[in-house]
Amino acid sequence: MSDKKGGVIINNELTDPLGNFVIDYLLSQTKETTYHDFKATLDISKNSNDFPKIIKDIYGFSNAGGGFLVLGVHENDHSDENIKGTFAKFGLSEDFKIDPASLQEKINSYFGDTPLNIGYTEFSRKFYGRERNFALIYIPPSPKILIPTEDGIYKDGNNEKKAFTKDI
User: Fold this and answer.
1) What is the reported pLDDT for 31?
2) What are 127's strand-pairing partners?
């Protein structure tokens, strides 16, 4: 389910941002960069506490020229300095499924009068001897600077925190 949303230039070639070439490239990376982040999972339910942190990433990527969120990649928390900060491709849970229209609606609820049309696809790849499920969100560059229309509040334990601030 890869709706082409513009294109991405890789090695001087216009490439589908949700296509296999981009997916395989992003999954080959062991660290996050200025154009992509790894996330273990994503919860878009009404009670989702972490969604404002995802929106902060989306604002940042869109305002900086576009980017990607790769879901199903977990931070490797080993204490060995040689691998600390790298990421493991464990995949998403077997029952993970997001309706692209619901994801788009939830994202746009933070963008006021400037909707952002993201791209989304779910796919599988073989890692550590078995097929694993992943998802990719493509965040296109915004034609103008996107500014939050509300505070991005989330809970960290019993404390409320702000992922981003309205109008900043």
Assistant:
1) 87
2) 130
Q: What does the pLDDT average to over 129-157?
A: 90
Give me the DSSP letters along 80-147: -TTTTT-EE---B-TT----HHHHHHHHHTTSTTS----EEEEEEEEETTEEEEEEEEEEPPPSS---
* Interstrand relation of 13-15 and 36-39 (parallel, antiparallel or unpaired): unpaired
In the predicted structure, residue 4 carries a pLDDT above the cut 50: no
Give me 46's structure tokens: 């009404």
Nearest to 96, CA basis, from 136, 146, 59, 36: 136
Residues in the chain: 168
Residue 2: band (very low, low, confident or very high) from pLDDT cuts 50, 70, 90: very low
Extract the tokens encoding 81.
Answer: 């300095």
Predicted pLDDT at 163: 87
State the Cα–Cα distance between residues 61 and 137, nearest whole angstrom: 11
- Which residue, among 110, 72, 106, 112, has the nearest Cα to 88 in the 3D structure? 72
Do residues 26 and 36 make contact, with C-beta atoms less than 8 angstroms apart?
Answer: yes
Q: Does the structure show a pLDDT above 90 at 148?
A: no
Q: Are 139 and 116 in contact (CB under 8 A)?
A: yes
